[in-house]
Automatic annotation (TrEMBL), chains A, B:
Organism the protein comes from: Candidatus Enterococcus testudinis
Entries under PROSITE patterns matching the protein: HTH_LACI_2 (PS50932)
Keyword DNA-binding set for record: yes
Superkingdom: Bacteria
Domain HTH lacI-type positions: 2-56
Membrane-spanning parts: none
Protein name (record): HTH lacI-type domain-containing protein
Amino acid sequence: MATIKDVANLAGLSVATVSRAMNGTGYVSEDARKKITYAINKLDYSPNEVARSLFQKKSKLVGLLLPDISNPFFPMVAKGVEDFLQKKGYQVILGNIQEDNEKANEYLRAFEQNNVAGILSAVEHKSKNHSDIPTVILDRIDEDVEYGVYSDDTQGGRLAAEAILKGQPHNIVVIAGPESVTRARDRLMSVEQTLKMAKVSYALIQSNSFLLEDAKETATLLFDRYPQVDSIIAPSDTHAITILQEAYHRSYQVPQALQVIGYDDVPISKLVVPRLTTIHQPAYKVGFKGAEMLYALMNNEHIERKKIILPVHLEVRETLRSGGE
Amino acid sequence: MATIKDVANLAGLSVATVSRAMNGTGYVSEDARKKITYAINKLDYSPNEVARSLFQKKSKLVGLLLPDISNPFFPMVAKGVEDFLQKKGYQVILGNIQEDNEKANEYLRAFEQNNVAGILSAVEHKSKNHSDIPTVILDRIDEDVEYGVYSDDTQGGRLAAEAILKGQPHNIVVIAGPESVTRARDRLMSVEQTLKMAKVSYALIQSNSFLLEDAKETATLLFDRYPQVDSIIAPSDTHAITILQEAYHRSYQVPQALQVIGYDDVPISKLVVPRLTTIHQPAYKVGFKGAEMLYALMNNEHIERKKIILPVHLEVRETLRSGGE
């Protein structure tokens, strides 16, 4: 009976290459793959091993689950993911769930069917479906997943509230991020704590999601309910930019009569008028570092920190009375 | 020697299912796949067929090549693509080239290695690498690819120029899109033709790309070189929004002293102040229709129209003197 050595000899390749091809544990060129197939056929090499290894072949694919690709924050995360993985020879399967959790489960099943080597998820899902596939959570917190990269919400919430406090606020409205997002809750807690410590009162409005349509609804509601508002702490740049527009149409002067702070620092926040002061989250770095962690995980490398929390900073532009300094 | 019937009998499945599994021509559950693998091993079924069919297995993957995922136009195209393909059980591999053509070739190779069933490309690449993989071009024109979905540039260029003409322009500056993009050239030709027919003169500025940083540079150059400008026809919303900001900082009143028209109608164009008048391109529909065409192509269905040109329209908002009507 033929052995792996015979296959390697006939194919004119090393045993290591043939073994890699059959176990799917490393890169093998298409040309080598063809030679190996030919040799396997020619020699009638044990089908058991071949069939099994081929079925088990690990792909060079990573599944990426995003809550909403039309929110400009997530394309930046995706860019970081792609930049790291492409260099390592991995490809990214895109799963955009448009904040629909049913879709998250469908994608996770599809990732499994495609035999992905790992999953990067910016969605909080409680599903255990994929428990044997290495997974890193990006920009979210998921109790069920050990590994994650996100940025510092306690710091971010504090910085946003402190910046608003410097502008002599009399009527603050805080918009809470969606309740389903753990990190939005952490950030809100930090905002509230900072305002309470300063003994400053505020009103609270709950938002439903980070989707554009929902942000517009929240902005309208806010001005209808609190026309006296002079300071707004928004849970995302999408919310803040929507508010700037609503404020313009209702003739509020920004920042003299109304100061606004965003969260995220998406590219467009630099382009609106006035330019949006916001908390900068390192979206690209979250993606890049997350991919790096996943790569280590997929290759059974030692991982020193299972949760990486990246610092944020205040990006001072034109929508705060104090300037923010 | 064992036959496919023996494998089917032992697996408790139909010959058709076993054949599907081995040729990769249809859906086979993970459970059935395991039973088949077991039967193949048990019976020592001809390795030649197994190895060959496994290597040839068509994936349920489609490669999507995008020029720049941080340009909000393309996430909308991607959304359309995904919405169609997910329903059909296909997954999308993301290839974001960041306007770097070298990267396009790397991605095309990676798509091939992953044995994608088809390619959707929003990049003009002259590479023939993937000539045997069904391909549809999205939002671009590529002479080498028979199938494509994009929107009507002749109509779009004309509509933009006509809208600007209604605002009594005295100093028009037209920004030409990147020279490498065929469609930008077609659009420019239509703008120029419309202005010439109206016997109105204009200045022309060449832009290098649709990237944000390049757009900022172009905006600065434009105002430095043509401080008397009172009308600008931009090749993208990114360009137009960058111009609105530069205009604000240089104290031009929009639209009274300076009217601006964009192109694309990305979500953010509704949110800037003043709200941007622009030519609406159906980005989502380009993605959705392109995926539909690719699906027909992958399944050897008859395709009536190989090029689908979708209509555009003027989206009237607040940056034109005439209102645009």
